[in-house]
Amino acid sequence: MYVLHIDVTDRKYPIYIQRGILSDLGKRIPKTYSKQKIAVITDDLLKEIYGDQIEKSLQEAGFLTKILSIEPGERSKSLETAAFLYDELLDFGINREDRILTFGGGVVGDLGGFVASTFLRGIPFIQFPTTLLAQVDSSIGGKMAVNLKQGKNLVGSFYHPQLVLIDPDLLQTLDKKYFRDGLAEVIKYGAIRDEDLFFRLLDRYDSEEDLLSDMEFIIYRCCGIKKEIVEKDERDKGERMLLNFGHTIGHGIERAFHYERYTHGEAVAIGMHEITKRSERMGETKPGTSEEIRKILIKYRLPYQIPDLDKKEFLKHIQHDKKALGEEMHVVLLEEIGKGYIQPIKREAIQKYVMD
User: Fold this and answer.
1) Which residue of 32, 127, 226, 259 could cross-link 164, Cys pair, CB 3.0 to 4.6 Å?
2) Is the domain of 72 the same as that of 160?
3) What pTM, to 2 d.p., does this model score?
């Protein structure tokens, strides 16, 4: 088992990374009183596969349990779905001594964490991420949010879990598209902070099976990088912006295609390559860096080129990104592989970084 401890302003909490940890779920959650309740927030597909196992494990550990299931997909990350969950929690009689367990990918984790942070002014919750993207990124750091029609993650809070449980075995049955979606975020960590991880991914593994065999270490290394950054900048006002490498263009692509054509990771993959290609041209990045990114994206069957789209609308989406502060935006660039930095630029100058 790999263990990390996150230490932020109002909370310290552990992350446990171990194959098969799902089978010990009920034993991993400390119980504080005899009739404690746990509301499990998951999606319809995961409920069908794992619902009975989760319910049995929690009930055998003495918890009163209810599974709350939502429709899979980004559209569920909304205020409307949050309102549905509030009603379900009220029907279950949840109080502030009980807990919420989020069991799912980024949508479930973000939505469930947002609901936990706002219901009764805050219910303790546990993250159990089931996708690679959620395991290495969205389940850690306390950023919880839902989407509005104007964009992603525009309503949210900073609210940390009490515990994060990560079971790499769940990736064995993850759809290949969504496994690669998470690999884009793994590649991001290597690109901004860990040259060894980046080239390990590029040169060491001959197949996805090889990669999966080493997944505990890979997840641990990514979570370790995020831990270091979050502890220095919990509220996303400085160094934590490094985690947005590729996201400026990526979010614009997601919105341009109404979150339907590309997964988040695929859009970020394109964003990493395209912004690095442009920063190289401007002499801000070591020559050849974008080619290394292109090679690793090709190896893991991720896209790397901006598709045909309405350039005016695309630019508008980017300029409305929540990372904009007043007249400035912050873009993340690379000096070279393993060395990311934050570049503040004027809104009107953003075009040269995101479009030809």
Assistant:
1) 127
2) yes
3) 0.90
Does residue 160 have a pLDDT over 80? Answer: yes
Count how many Cα atoms sit within 13 Å of the Cα of residue 37 in the half-sphere of its side chain: 16
- pLDDT surpassing 90 at residue 346: no
Residues 283 and 320 in one domain: yes
Domain that residue 294 falls in: 183-354
Same domain, 27 and 159: yes
pLDDT at 297 over 90: yes
Quick check: 164 and 15 in contact, CB under 8 A? yes
Q: Report the CATH number that the domain containing residue 140 is assigned in CATH.
A: 3.40.50.1970
3-state SS assignment for residue 352 = helix
Closest CA to 248 of 276, 219, 284: 276
Under 8 Å between Cβ of 144 and 157: yes
Where residue 278 sits, what CATH number does that domain have? 1.20.1090.10
Q: Is 177 domain-assigned?
A: no
Beta strands in the chain (DSSP E): 2-8, 11-17, 37-43, 64-70, 99-104, 125-129, 143-148, 151-158, 163-166, 328-336, 339-346
Q: Name the band, by pLDDT with cuts 50, 70 and 90, for residue 203.
A: very high
The reply to whether 90 falls in a domain is yes
Q: Which residues have C-beta within 8 Å of that of residue 170, sequence separation ≥ 6?
A: 22, 130
* 100, β-bridge pairs: 39, 125
- The answer to whether residues 165 and 191 belong to one domain is no
How far is the first Cα of the chain from the last one, in angstroms, to the nearest whole number?
47
Residue 322, pLDDT > 90, answer no
HEC sequence for 176-242: HHHHHHHHHHHHHHHHHHCHHHHHHHHHCCCCHHHHHHCHHHHHHHHHHHHHHHHHHCCCCCCHHHH
CA atoms within 13 Å, Cβ hemisphere of 155: 15
